Amino acid sequence: MLMQTHEARLSALREELARRELDGFVVPISDEHLSEYVGAYAQRLAWLTGFGGSAGSAVVLKNNAAMFVDGRYTIQVRDQVDGKLYDYKSVPKDNMGDWIAETAAKGARIGFDPWLHTRGWAKAMAKRLDKAGAELVAVDGNPIDAVWSDQPERSMAPAFVQDDTYAGRSSAEKRGEIADWLKDEGLDAVVISALDSVAWTLNIRGSDVDHTPVALSYLMVQSDGTADWFIAPEKVTDEVSSKLGNAVRIRNADEFSAAFAQLAGKRVAADPERSVYAIFERLDEVGADVVLETDPAVLPKAIKNSAERQGHRDAQARDGAAVSRFLNWLEDEGPKGTVDELSAAARLKAFREENAALVDLSFDTISGAGSNGALCHYRVSEETCLPLEPNSVYLVDSGGQYKDGTTDITRTVWIGPDTPPAEVKDRFTRVLKGHIALDMQIFPTGTAGSALDVLARQHLWMAGVDYAHGTGHGVGSFLGVHEGPQRIAKGRGGQAGTDQELVAGMILSNEPGYYKAGEYGIRIENLVLVVDRQIDGMEGEWFGFETLTLVPIDRTLVDREMLSEAEIAWWNDYHAKVHAVLAPQLEGGNLAWLEAACQPL
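-> structure tokens emitted (601 positions)
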């Protein structure tokens, strides 16, 4: 029987928990690979609660339930999740373990799915509940799956080869490098479960997760360079099998847990941040000597080789032309009052689809008009869709997946016909100044992203305002639009990636912003490549950024008087490059629009 209401679904889950003699259950947004974006079958939190954000968790107890989200989703969670069913909790101020300990009865048994959480999370939660006289219990089979009668099946879409011309190195080379690392560390094998790491190591891609070209699978790499790839056999084509060769043993995904027996007595590496609790539990059961190590594909994957760098440049060039056509269209149509968030996003997608090289979008387009633009991770729906009003701010964050690169760009534009208010121009120009400061910065080897973050915020801070997200995230090569380990963000609290030094070949976003709740949002985002810099008289090794994203920035929103001569020179140089790259791809009215948009400031 299909349960149409979230109240009915919550009731059914509670009945299932009672049947299993559990007093509560934790529901994260996660899959067996700890992916940021998950397949439809793993959207358990959305099914249960209605919450459509990309990060958050629920806790369901016998008589209480709560939603835990961070500041990005404070408004969204209240719009999508029934406050009569769930309390709203804000992370990190509200701690999930503390709430369970204070709310659950003494002796409560709180369940969790060991395939959806890290070992670190489970240990910390167990310790907190134990102090309160409660118990954390690993469940055998997710109880939501037992009551979700129309749960989507796991994707059976075939995996496909990522050609070496795009990858820049063969899978054999990459596996050989991992094997050398294993031998150097005295290890026999490594378990790799992060989907993008599996895809990168094998030079394969898939379509099992929306907008992220990965295939649901696991990988065990041995110290002799051979590997066991665990994947549904229906997903492996003859081309994929032939490309991988005999050194990669293709095994049924159902054999993954049983295959751990072959690791008994061996020294096995696993990444505590990217592998679920169940993997460590299984390694312990078979008697493996578990060594905690970062996934060996993570850093090499982040440092793009020459083929990947050029691929990104090529992808950015064609993507920039598509976005420019959209902005020209929007300049004409927006002030008419006939465009809304959904139709704008659809039109942008259509412009990208005019190029046959597009494989997919890289994420659901953030199309935010007016007050919705102030929600920095907003996702438009039929229920939330707003029109683009004349004389308002519109923010659009979007990207494309191409076999040679992954793009991610945000542009904020003024929908005319009148001129923008002074406050909007002030805030936009402060965001622009921070964007330019970061783009222009030269820094020495060993510099972490946290050391650069304030460059993007400085002019906003001087006005007593800030933004609540990081300034930059890593980006994959026809892989995840969010990729570690590097990022540019405040270093407080040891946020993941903020201590990772930046090295040549890494790609990051540069995306400062400003958000006035209930009114408008501003963000300017380009992707940048870390490159070597030569400076007269320099001592040691120095780096800077090459800007990859090439799309005009809305000059209507700029207060020129607030810019220094160096910032104006940056603007003019940037737009000269935009024109040089995009003009050969445009014609007619689109070319005329580009000419005007790229005039010196």
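Residues 113 and 142 are 6 Å apart (CA to CA).
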